[in-house]
Every structure is written in structure tokens, then in C-alpha cells.
């Protein structure tokens, strides 16, 4: 099925980092709400909204729209159960270089993350082929999903260029 409408992938705003918690538990940092609000003009007014269950993503969605936001568990970031990683960019590079391997202790490999996120997107798109969609989530997951939507390989450089927050229109 070919979609007749667009998709906007919103990377969450800056999180309130608590090194004692896994990243999936971090909330959105309210001190940077203005950065999130600045994305509003780049998003469609009448889209359907879907979101990762992670607090920083849900907080981002709530700032960006008054419309209903459906939480979809499989839109979460690749699972990173490990604690704080000092050289996070190097770990992500390893994950992209070897998507079937665990890049750091407790990390989900990117290949199963991609399958999960793509399957969730495909279900949403099939249910709403003529609607604009806004999905709010995470940089790595969105880099993988954007590659799927475009029909090309995931691009580590695209991930490296992403801001907190940011919008990808594949």
C-alpha cells in the first residue's frame, strides 16, 4: 500500500538526565520546553498523533499538540537497560556498524529494534493511509524508521545531526 499522506518523526526534547535511572525513565526537562514549542510551525495542524511510551517523548507530544496522542509501546527507543555510558556516541556507532550485535551491556541490537518500530509504523500507516501522521519518539528508532520509509539504509550521520528536539520528514 502506498501512503498518500506524510509522516513527521519528532525526536523528543532534551531529557532531565538522572544517571541513577535508565534512559527510558527520564522525563522531559521543563527548562527546555521552548525548544520543543519551536517545532510547532514545522508540523501539520490536522495530523494524527502517535507516541513512544517513554516520559520524555510523551512530554514532548503533550507540548506540541492538544489533539489526542495514542501511545504505542513498540515506538520506544532501542532498549538500553545499562546505566550511564560515558561515550554514548561511540556505543551508537557500534550499534549501527553491527546491527545484530549488542553494542553495550544491556542494549537491544538495532536489527530487532528496527523490525519492531517498522512493524508498528506499518500497522499505523495501514490503518490511516490517507492521514498525515506525527510520531513522537527517539533518535535511533527514528533514524531506522526514516530509512525504511525512504527505502534506504540507516544513516549514522543522520543520527549524529539530530537535535534535541528535532523533526525528520523522510
Using the alpha-carbon principal axes, give the shape: globular
Strand content: 5-15%
CATH architecture: 3-Layer(aba) Sandwich
Count of DSSP H/I helices: 6
Counted up, domains total 1
Strand/helix succession: EHEHEHHEHHE
> What is the CATH top level name?
Alpha Beta
Q: What's the helix and strand layout?
A:
Layout lengths: L6 E5 L21 H5 L10 E4 L3 H10 L4 E3 L16 H10 L12 H18 L5 E5 L1 H12 L5 H6 L4 E3 L2
Parallel strand pairs: 1-4, 2-3, 2-4
Antiparallel strand pairs: 1-5
InterPro entries: His_Pase_superF_clade-1, His_PPase_superfam
Pfam family, one: His_Phos_1
Protein name: Histidine phosphatase family protein
Characterization of the model:
This protein has 170 residues and is of the alpha/beta class. The protein has one domain (7-168): Rossmann fold, CATH 3.40.50. Helix content is 36%, strand content 12%. The protein is built from 6 helices and 5 strands. It has helices at 33-37, 55-64, 88-97, 110-127, 139-150, 156-161; strands at residues 7-11, 48-51, 69-71, 133-137, 166-168. The chain has a 5-stranded mixed β-sheet. Helix 2 (55-64) links the parallel strand 2 (48-51) and strand 3 (69-71). It is globular. The mean pLDDT is 95. Pfam families: His_Phos_1. It comes from Nocardioides bigeumensis. InterPro entries: His_Pase_superF_clade-1, His_PPase_superfam. This is Histidine phosphatase family protein.
